[in-house]
Amino acid sequence: xxxxxxxxxxxxxVAPGDQGLAISTVLGAAIDVGAVGDTPPVALFFDxxxxxxRCEALVEAFPPTTLxxxxxxxxxxxxxxxxxxxxxxxxxxxxIGEAHVALAAGVPPARIVYDSPAKTxxxxxWVLSRGIHINVDNVEELxxxxxxxxxxxxxxxxPDAGAAEREAATAAATATVGLRVNPQLGTASIxxxxxxxxxxxxxxxxxxxRSAIVAAVSTHPFVRCLHVxxxxxxxxxxxxxxGVSAVVDLAAEINDGVGxxxxxxxxxGGGMSVDYNGDDPAGGPTFDAYVSAxxxxxxxxxDFRLVTEFGRSLAATVGWVGARVEGIKRAGGRTIVVCHAGxxxxxxxxxxxxxxxxxxxxxxxxxxxxxxxxxxxxxxCTYQDHLHHQVGEEDADSVSATANGSNKEEAMDAATESLExxxxxGPLCFSGDIIARDRxxxxxxxxxxxxxxEAGAYTLSAYCRHTxxxxxAVWGYEEDAPTELKLLKKMxxxxxxVSFWSA
Length: 503
Known about the structure:
Blueprint: H1 23-32, E1 42-47, H2 48-61, E2 67-71, H3 78-86, E3 90-93, H4 96-104, E4 112-115, H5 121-128, E5 133-136, H6 139-155, H7 163-174, E6 177-182, E7 204-205, H8 206-218, E8 223-227, H9 237-258, E9 265-267, H10 287-297, E10 305-308, H11 312-315, E11 319-331, E12 334-339, H12 347-351, E13 360-363, E14 369-372, H13 381-384, H14 393-404, H15 408-417, E15 420-425, E16 434-441, E17 449-452, E18 473-478, E19 481-489, H16 494-500
Parallel strand pairs: 1-18, 2-3, 2-10, 3-4, 4-5, 5-6, 6-7, 6-8, 8-9, 9-10, 12-15
Antiparallel strand pairs: 1-11, 11-12, 11-17, 13-14, 13-17, 15-16, 18-19
Helix pairs in contact: 5-6, 6-7, 8-9, 9-10, 14-15
């Protein structure tokens, strides 16, 4: 689908660090061709150019031998995983379903990393027989994997062995096997996404079971990798580096003990935080900064082949949701704007609003930018942050004069006076379906569009089926052709919902 651009210039709200998010242009094009409207009243949009730029920045920051597995849990849309692969990444998967997504996206098995805290023997066999890198969660699981691996190898030597058995055995013999370690680093600002606490369910606790870890790896020579992943949001760079440093020391201890270089690969996970408030011009920590910190504090990590598992930091800021406003009501001294994006897409913002917030902006019925952004009490970004506001050429001079001339303060005051503090509610039938509170927006009308930013990760992958809302379509676009929308995932239909809930 290639909608024609509008005749009139459209306002664009631009993300810090990714200046090509011409949201108004894209939203206007989607409205023009019926990709969004009264039906469907919500869709997710994905800036493919910015995503590719993020992937390339990751690849360039690390040594060229590094395997970067895009964390499919962040965004399992097959076209997005394929875009990551085209940019030089592999895939990190946390279930058999995600493994099939990665394969469908064209990721070679050898470039897939399989992590999960709960694997059946069937899972272990399926992954090993395809030569997929697998990280076991604990020593008991390692023992089970050892038995499954032995069975695959011996099956190739049986009298009835065929090509399939021999192929599976070869794949199992060459697959990288790692053991996940929990460095037990303390706490982080978001406990639910921190995986290196003393009592985390992930990995073997290093402080409590160091000897057992060393013994288990040493007695299984096929274990060539140690895996650490300390969290996925709210984790400072120095904490990430601390986790990596712990496994570097552990690998040296194991290799010294066995008298050879058994552990030659370190999977250092992902976990770089994203700036959901729009305060950081870079959008959060950079990959270059992370690598620089690693070189400074634990340079021996680069003696190993590295694997990474970034997801949120690649995809979150390049996606946004456009949702139609369906109603405005006033109750108990509050103004509530009801739209078609709620806890179905933004579960964490609804259930943990003190930890998770997304920038919200208001657009008119034709997609023209009206205002908004930032978190509670952040004010009106039209006048406070030039990075967030761009206009068509014919308006640029007048806006610049207003913003920079003698009437700047008067313009800011006038804009502020026109704002109303609102709560943003979704379509689900429970009172907690509020995804943003105390946001300052210009006057809102039914048929306007709310844009929720930083929605490229952990929206569809954490989708809530409550009240069986139709899962929205995902549209991609390139920054040099923002009106040429590409369907990355079709919208769910009522028939799809019935099928989902049927035997």
